[in-house]
Amino acid sequence: MDVFRQWMIGVLLLVMVESPLFGQQENKAPEEFEGATAYCYKKTAEGELYLYVFQPEKGRQRNRPAAVFFFGGGWNGGTPGQFSEHASYLASRGMVGIVADYRVKSRQGTTPFECVKDGKSAIRWVRAHAGELGVDPDRIAAGGGSAGGHVAAATATVPGLEEEGEDRIVSCRPNALLLFNPVYDNGPEGFGHERVKERYKEISPIDNIRTGTPPAIVFLGTNDKLIPVATAEKYKELMKQAGSRCDLHLYEGQPHGFFNRRKSEEHFLKTVTEMDRFLESLGYLKGEPTIK
Questions:
Q1: Quick one: pLDDT band at residue 29, thresholds 50, 70, 90?
Q2: pLDDT for the residue 292
Q3: Rounded CA separation 247/223 (Å)
Q4: pLDDT digits 0-9 by tens, 170-225
């Protein structure tokens, strides 16, 4: 009986190990966003990752600027839908708007380091497929809110955290940043330090600003309990010292996440309008904002 039992356990273990689902998440169908086309930009041990592309109504043309948005959620959760309206709006203005999924702790059991790797992979994929998407590879903005703002800022600043096997000849650095109450300080006094600890300089955008960091616009409420105004002002000053532009917009009395439409219609419209004007100043858009 003992021999038979050992044989059965061995067979069971062999079946588990050889199963395509053992040690990885089953691939799920991409989400659906009205007006967007889903593309698988990365395959990981935890499953496939998708980004969702909103094309301008006039149809696909060549060399349009693009913006890739990353959702917030403390690197723990969240959904690409958070910025689908931003992406759709930019598409209505003539840009290619994109929202990207990335691995998070609640779904894939990952760390902030994987989040940044996925962010870099998304930007690199868009640039590598610029011809297919009708994107100008030299006018790609990265944006996001909170932890998604961190991912966007990190793609532009941190030198490491590259995914193995990717073609690094294709740059993962965006050409502009659209940051909504971003987490960009992971140092001892910053947000999320307990998640990265002594490795914080590998992943903290504020500790990696250097010459050539792309221009940024930042939106922050003065009553944000996670991101102090002093951090935003320090980031702006360091950007200035590096010769880079940083437009900081402060909103009196507003908390973390104030820019989401479901929290404040007024501040959603204000921040999207300022984002539009910033992109217009870079030559990505033309004319007056049309957000309603």
A1: confident
A2: 85
A3: 19
A4: 999 999 999 999 999 999 999 999 999 999 999 999 999 999 999 999 999 999 99
pLDDT at 16 over 80: no
What is the token pair recorded at 130?
């610029």
CB 151 within 8 A of CB 119: yes
Q: Where exactly are the structural domains of the chain?
A: 35-281
Closest by CA position to 203, among listed 166, 157, 164: 157
E-state strands within 146-273: 176-180, 216-221, 246-251
E strand or H helix that includes residue 48: strand 47-54
Largest CA distance in the chain: 81
Supply the DSSP string of 265-279, one letter for each residue.
Answer: HHHHHHHHHHHHHHH
The pLDDT of residue 2: 54
Q: Are 77 and 104 in contact (CB under 8 A)?
A: yes
Q: CA nearest 292: which of 263, 272, 262? A: 272
- Mean predicted confidence (pLDDT) in 37-48: 96
Cα(23)–Cα(208) distance, integer angstroms: 34
Calculate ∠ Cα 212-112-246, nearest 5°. 30
180 with 143: CB under 8 angstroms?
A: yes
At 98 the three-state DSSP class reads strand
Type of residue numbered 253: G
CATH class given for the domain over 35-281? alpha beta
68: confidence class by pLDDT, cuts 50, 70, 90: very high
Strands 135-145 and 64-70: parallel
Q: Tell me how far CA of residue 111 lies from CA of 74, 118, 152, in angstroms.
A: 10, 11, 16
Q: How many residues does the chain have?
A: 292
The H or E element that residue 64 is part of is: strand 64-70
Question: pLDDT at residue 28 above 90?
Answer: no
